[in-house]
Records
---
Amino acid sequence: MITRSVTLDQCNFRNITIMDGSVAPGPTSEEKKFAWMKPYIERLVLMMKAHDTQQWLQVFLIDPVLSYIMNRFFAYFLVAMVGFGALLLFVILTFILLIVRTRDAASGHVCVGCGMNK
């Protein structure tokens, strides 16, 4: 069995040179197609890491967008919470009424709905 040692380029794994002199295939057509974007993306990443840029984006983009969304959404949120609270109150009162009626029926008390003895 023949073993080969492989050295990798420090930046990426595309440039593989095999010690016996042969070279592994280079970048694919997709990598070549988007290779021109790499410097722009790296520059964008460096700009985004700057504290001033992050603060500017937060003040002029993120905060106004979130504020607008919350102002438009708050009325619907309030209606949904009131509806959910009313539904929860209705369910709790229904369970209390069922427990009281079951206890009264078991002890032989008068039926609340029809007034007859059970």
---
Amino acid sequence: MDKGQLAEKATEALRPFETANLMNTIQNLTLKQIFTHPTFLIIVTAVFFFGVIKRSKTVLLTLFALIGFIVIARFAMPAPGEELSMKSMLPFVGGGVVIGSVIIYFALIKSD
């Protein structure tokens, strides 16, 4: 197999991970589908237990931010074909401020 064929195979294998395809998938998923997917549940559970066992504030805050941004992206992204408006940006901005505030509070202000 020469380099050209290998590059074509790699391109075809990675095509589902293009930004447009990922955004389309995220916009069409429901929160129930995301939070009931076995792979997502296993990863979140493993990271949660690792964070609890190691008492790692960083790991738990990262997990909080990840789940928060999934919820925000689901509610703030406009439906396919709609333009991004100020009304649709408000939940994203508000949620981002809340998540950022919680992370700053627990990471920088609250001491152990």
---
Amino acid sequence: MSDTKRELIIQACLMRAASITTANGYNTDMGLNTFRAISKIDPSRLPACIVYPFSETAERVGGGEYLCTMPLRAEAVALTGITNPSVLAEQMLGDMRQAFMGAPITPLIEEMAYTSGGTNDYTKNDSVSVIANFTIKYFSTISSPYV
């Protein structure tokens, strides 16, 4: 069977996260290692971006459709090296916001909004973690979640 519309949207978000590299005009290379919903990253795989899709809600709308709202979190983790962790964190947050909100990710998404974000963890001396939360809205037919 084919992928659901939700799965295709998640895959498109992962591809967008993978585009976050200095070669593509961003400040950081967190897209060099992109993962989906993992809890631990080997330090040798940094910088990295992890995408976490969360439980969605659905509202029945006219025309036999649901308007689905899916929260999505992107987390970036990088070694600080000689860079000030706060400066690096702001670059990482800016890169995620630009990547996810700068241009449409897929025509399957009806609406996408940045809802919150910032530095997640300064406690490690050699790395910094930043999160960016988004809300994605898309339509799904009542009879099938597939495209």
